[in-house]
Design brief:
196 residues, alpha+beta
Length: 196
């Protein structure tokens, strides 16, 4: 039995006409929506895992190209580029993608007052301080050397809303929290997008 020959031009024209009647753009009809446009697939695209996105963003922040960043994170360059442009967190400058620092906030899981809380910070200095604190906590839990926590005693950090959180340095409390909250490093830190 002979196979029917497809008329690709006619199919493409009909596809564009259907999209036009729905008020969609040509790029949406083709299946490659531009930045800010929604995909028209019936099946919603699976959400990217946060840890992979964060890995890609970190690679770009360190000066890597979009291709290198997407490869290291296990993403396609198109998906990472769409994420960057849709959320307006990066801009292309001199042929390289650069993160827009003023639009970035960071979300951290920190230990304070005997509990673990998630806070969002917008200040790079606070971001660095929290990273150093969590590294010291990890070092303490691995070596049982409480001396690494001394520089964080009576140190507080502020979130974007201005609330203060005193960093937990009590060894017994940290042991208890560690047993209760077995988190991976990716879950302690992530970029949070500032809504404009």
């Amino acid at each position: 039995m002979a196979r029917k020959t497809r008329d690709y031009r006619l199919e493409y024209r009909r596809r564009l006409e259907r999209a036009g009647r729905r008020g969609l753009s040509k790029s949406q009809a083709r299946g490659h929506p531009k930045a800010g446009e929604q995909s028209i697939r019936a099946k919603a695209r699976a959400r990217l895992r946060d840890a992979r996105l964060q890995q890609g963003l970190r690679a770009i922040r360190k000066g890597g190209s979009l291709a290198e960043a997407s490869r290291s994170a296990g993403l396609s360059p198109e998906r990472l580029r769409k994420y960057l442009t849709d959320h307006k967190i990066a801009r292309k400058h001199d042929g390289r993608w650069r993160l827009i620092k003023k639009r970035l906030r960071w979300e951290w899981a920190i230990f304070t007052e005997g509990t673990m809380v998630f806070i969002v910070v917008g200040d790079p200095a606070t971001n660095s301080l929290i990273g150093s604190y969590l590294n010291a906590v990890r070092q303490f839990l691995n070596t049982n050397d409480a001396a690494v926590l001394k520089r964080f005693q009576n140190v507080s950090v502020k979130d974007v809303a201005g609330r203060k959180y005193r960093l937990e340095t009590n060894p017994n409390t940290l042991y208890r929290l560690d047993l209760a909250e077995r988190e991976t490093p990716e879950e302690h830190y992530k970029f949070a997008i500032q809504e404009m």
